[in-house]
Design a protein that fits this description.
This protein is 76% helix and 0% strand. The chain has 16 helices and no strands.
Length: 417
């Protein structure tokens, strides 16, 4: 009988890593197009039933509620069953949610549709775990940048299609999103190989506590070096998701932007992220290190968000929004790399499920906060308030390594240059 290590090498030798990464990129891109295609039309759809900014943000919030509850469990299932089956179920659920959203008819139906999508919305975190499975440690920053590139291209193609189709019928983009999801299911079913061999899967039985996302987050936060990073991620997602939830409303209310102008703004932001992820992230992150690059990106977003609040012209807002997009393109791959380098292969899916759950929780709290202060403080107030949160997160990421009582490093950047 062959040794286990030889069997693993033989099996991994038949795995086309480059082809798998290309396919997972296509699946992520189509999924993100499905998500972003709704952005230009969602505020108009909600305002058929309720004019308040807080109710517009509820479309984001209710999706995040479902994702917060389910994402850690999806991550755990991926660690036990493999990435492929979890990814397929998740994408199919997304498609069902889009179809319900397209049928619509009332505000509660729109909210129910987003809840369905959120509960099954572990596809991007599962895709990130897939990338981690097939990436050598030194390749992770570069390969995780694929996710940012998929988001950036999705932010170009999705809003473009949403703005165009939304001029014909506000429901049309949701039908397109459903079709893209079901096409993704077909691609994954027939072409996608499993990335996590059986011998590398988690084998401990699921516990009742595994259904509680708070328990999963706390357990991960106790691991050396991860707690501080998870706090930084939480602050980033809180401000970022809150500002994005009201960003379209801001340009509509302050500048009376039309659907096509909103689409152009989102498309240019996505194009900026694509350029940064393709040309700058692979060069600057290895040169300056994940910790410094991530901190600078957070501080840069703070500066540019204040500028968006202050400038008096829509075209200036669009240009500065591109600068914000450039800064944000560095944040995800650096924070993800710093965190995944601190766990083993059998826990990568759980970690990324936890980070998705944190993002979802902040996608509840951030838009709630942003919608409330937008309605009750002033139009655009989330921009300058969110900037203070970005500054806090950036300074925390620059904090020197600390030592706990046992003498271990609580936070030691992987790349210290």
């Amino acid at each position: 009988m062959q040794p286990a290590s030889r069997r693993v090498r033989k099996r991994s030798g038949s795995f086309n890593k480059k082809g798998a990464l290309g396919l997972i990129f296509v699946i992520m891109l189509m999924d993100i197009i499905g998500i972003t295609i709704l952005n230009p039309v969602a505020p108009y759809l909600v305002r058929r039933y309720d004019e308040r900014a807080l109710m517009v943000t509820m479309i984001t919030i209710i999706y995040a509620v479902g994702q917060f509850v389910a994402a850690p469990l999806m991550g755990k299932l991926g660690d036990r069953l493999g990435r492929r089956p979890v990814l397929l179920v998740s994408i199919a659920g997304q498609g069902a949610g889009y179809l319900i959203f397209a049928l619509g008819g009332s505000l509660w139906v729109l909210l129910a549709a987003r809840l369905v999508g959120g509960i099954t919305g572990g596809n991007l975190s599962t895709a990130a775990a897939y990338i981690a499975d097939v990436s050598a440690p030194q390749e992770r920053s570069k390969n995780f940048a694929m996710i940012g590139t998929a988001w950036s291209l999705g932010l170009i193609l999705g809003p473009a299609a949403g703005g165009l189709m939304g001029t014909l019928a506000l429901e049309a983009p949701a039908y397109i999103a459903a079709v893209l999801s079901f096409v993704n299911v077909g691609l994954g079913f027939f072409l996608l190989q499993e990335s996590l061999p059986r011998e590398r899967r988690e084998t401990t039985p699921l516990r009742g506590a595994d259904l509680n996302p708070i328990v999963a987050i706390v357990d991960m936060g106790r691991k050396p070096g991860l707690g501080w990073l998870l706090i930084v991620m939480s602050l980033f997602n809180f401000a970022f998701n809150g500002i994005n939830a009201v960003g379209v409303l801001f340009v509509i209310d302050k500048f009376h932007a039309a659907t096509w102008q909103v689409s152009v703004m989102l498309m240019l932001g996505g194009g900026t992220i694509a350029v940064c992820n393709s040309l700058l992230v692979p060069r600057w992150v290895p040169r300056f290190g994940e910790r410094v690059t991530g901190a600078v990106s957070l501080l840069g977003m703070a500066v540019f968000d204040v500028a968006i609040f202050l400038v008096p012209l829509l075209w200036l807002v669009i240009l500065i929004s591109m600068a914000v997009s450039a800064m944000s393109s560095f944040t995800f791959p650096t924070l993800t790399t710093l965190s995944t380098d601190r766990v083993g292969h059998s826990e990568v899916g759980l970690l990324l499920g936890v980070t998705t759950a944190i993002g979802s929780l902040m996608n509840i709290l951030g838009p709630l906060w942003a919608g409330a202060i937008y309605d009750h403080v002033m139009v655009g107030s989330p921009y300058w308030m969110g900037a203070a949160v970005f500054v806090t997160a950036g300074l925390m990421l620059l904090r020197p390594a600390t030592i706990d009582r046992g003498g271990r490093k609580l936070y030691r950047p992987v790349t210290e240059r």
